[in-house]
Write a structure and sequence with these properties.
By secondary structure, the chain is an alpha/beta fold. The protein is built from twelve helices and eight strands. The relative contact order is 0.15. The structure holds zinc ion.
């Protein structure tokens, strides 16, 4: 098999939990033994990463999540300042282009789970001020906005959930459907307020996990101008966790006319990676597998970079 180098492929990924890991084990964003760091990202031809602020509500005393969210934001800002030679914080597509022109990794922000903002529109506004571009309506645990794929999965958006989604779109923050319950997904999509995104979710027809997207969900994402990010978590890839299994997800999304709606959402530092991978440096193997399958460079550049850039404008 051909072996393309990191330096020959672009990279724009919608989800990693590395900042949460930095906050809790003191690792550096610059270089660490985890699945992703700035040093490795800088080896791509050009790289952009959406970094999630994330905390599992069950592991924090009630009423402390907003403090935790602010703490992780401070850690992120400090890491950006300490690594200004490698990376720059970006809010927009224009920022990303400028970062790449300067030879830097583009770093963007998301919040995984509106409970980190106390499900509060005012704190959402604060996050918008920080430059946060995406907020997951829920993580795994049910919150005041909606049921999730694992807790109260039959419950859709509450009235507060609808108001929060509307406020997010109004602030230029995309509500993220990954982790939402199925009814929550449809409640959000049917509000029809902007691109629907699922930063780190695969095809349920290929791997029947409730964290993955049904065909109709993916079509709704596609028709809204949004994207779904391909997740490298072995449980969401399914099968024997091989690259052939990942190719099956891509093939399936392409059969649904998804060339402009599929992107990357690796879930780095938030999962057990499939394919025997240990980190983001292994991604060229997926490019090779897809190229060997017959996908041309323009199509792969859309999946690996352009589709995220378009959505974040
Ligand atoms: Zn997640």
């Amino acid at each position: 098999m051909a072996c393309i180098s990191m330096g020959s492929i672009p990279y724009f990924d919608g989800h990693c939990d590395t900042v949460s890991a930095c906050t809790h084990d003191g690792r550096s964003l610059r270089e660490n033994g985890g699945q992703l760091d700035l040093r490795r990202l800088s080896r791509f031809q050009k790289a952009a990463q959406i970094f999630a602020l994330f905390a599992n509500a069950e592991k924090f005393p009630a009423g402390t999540l907003w403090n935790e969210c602010q703490k992780q934001h401070e850690v992120f800002l400090r890491q950006m300042a300490e690594n200004a030679d490698l990376a720059v914080f970006c809010r927009t597509g224009a920022d990303v282009a400028a970062a790449h022109k300067a030879g830097r990794v583009a770093a963007l922000l998301s919040v995984e789970g509106a409970e980190l903002l106390d499900c509060d529109p005012e704190k959402l506004e604060t996050a918008a001020g920080w430059g946060v571009r995406l907020v997951n309506v829920t993580w795994n645990h049910v919150n005041a906005l909606s049921g999730t794929n694992v807790e109260q999965p039959d419950r859709g958006l509450t009235d507060r959930g609808r108001a929060f989604v509307q406020a997010a779109y109004g602030l230029g923050i995309l509500p993220d459907a990954s982790h939402l319950s199925d009814p929550g997904f449809w409640d959000m999509a049917e509000m029809n307020l902007g691109p629907v995104v699922a930063t780190h979710s695969n095809a349920r027809a290929v791997c029947g996990h409730s964290r993955n997207l049904t065909d109709d969900m993916f079509k709704a994402i596609r028709d809204s101008g949004g994207v779904a990010g391909l997740n490298m978590y072995e449980d969401f890839i399914g099968g024997a966790h091989t690259l052939d299994d990942a190719v099956r997800h891509v093939d399936h999304f392409m059969e649904l006319d998804g060339a402009k709606a599929l992107a990357l959402g690796g879930d780095w530092d938030g999962c057990e990676l499939a394919f025997g991978w240990t980190g983001v440096q292994d991604l060229p193997a997926l490019w090779d597998a897809l190229a060997e399958r017959g996908y041309d460079r323009a199509c792969l550049e859309d999946i690996f970079f352009n589709n995220w850039l378009r959505v974040l404008g």
